[in-house]
Design goal:
By secondary structure, the protein is mainly beta. The protein has two helices and twelve strands, in the order H-E-E-E-E-E-E-E-H-E-E-E-E-E. The chain has helices spanning about 5-25, 135-140; strands spanning about 30-40, 45, 55-60, 60-70, 75-90, 95-110, 115-130, 145-155, 165-175, 180-185, 185-190, 195-205.
């Protein structure tokens, strides 16, 4: 994707989050979030010797962040900002942790509203800014785009002025997060899987 197009899409996504936050301040609630991610990423293959492949040693990561939940009746808009540990690649001469900063905008639709427990479905776009260690950072795109879908529930705690939102989520990449080929330490690599996809468990605590 062209760099200018990426920057325009990122700016539009951030602007949507900010506009939503300003549009309905009376119904907005701040929250904190944490969870685990189970990334479906493959090893990164070399173009010459399979024994020099970059092995994905750990694909179980975590994420921490802030959300701003904007209630609109049965619909809710929820922008956020997250830090995420994706996984660790073991290259022949080094290791590289892959982390991201992420700006999601979730649209939630309540299906079964009750006073204490309300189930919902969610979906929305997310801008992802990947970072790597050592030379692998140069092979990562400046920004990648992902779509999230999932299910969750608003759980109101009697006597406490907060809401718990446990969620099961799935993300699938719309654009690449890594280049189609790159060189580290004189070895050329060619990823067969260039988009981010993962299942995640998350708990939002809304104040």
């Amino acid at each position: 994707m062209d760099t200018q197009v990426k920057r325009t899409f990122s700016s539009a996504l951030v602007a949507l989050a900010l506009v939503g936050a300003i549009a309905v301040p009376a119904r907005a609630q701040l929250g904190v979030s944490a969870g685990l991610g189970f990334d479906a990423l493959n090893d990164i293959e070399t173009t010459t010797n399979a024994s020099e492949n970059a092995t994905l040693e750990n694909a179980t990561g975590y994420h921490l962040g802030l959300v701003y939940d904007l209630g609109l009746g049965a619909f809710s808009l929820r922008p956020g900002l997250f830090f995420r540990k994706v996984g660790t690649y073991d290259f022949p001469d080094s290791q590289s942790d892959v982390t991201t900063w992420e700006v999601p905008v979730d649209l939630r639709v309540t299906l079964l509203p009750t006073p204490l427990l309300s189930a919902y479905v969610l979906g929305g776009p997310k801008a992802v800014f990947p970072q790597g260690e050592n030379k692998f950072d140069d092979a990562l795109e400046e920004v990648s785009y992902v779509f999230d879908v999932g299910v969750g529930a608003d759980v109101s705690l009697p006597g406490a002025d907060l809401t718990l939102q446990p969620e099961l989520r799935y993300e699938f990449g719309a654009t690449d997060y890594v280049e189609d080929n790159f060189t580290i330490g004189g070895t050329e690599f060619k990823p067969s899987d260039r988009t981010l996809s993962a299942f995640a468990l998350r708990l939002n605590v809304i104040f």
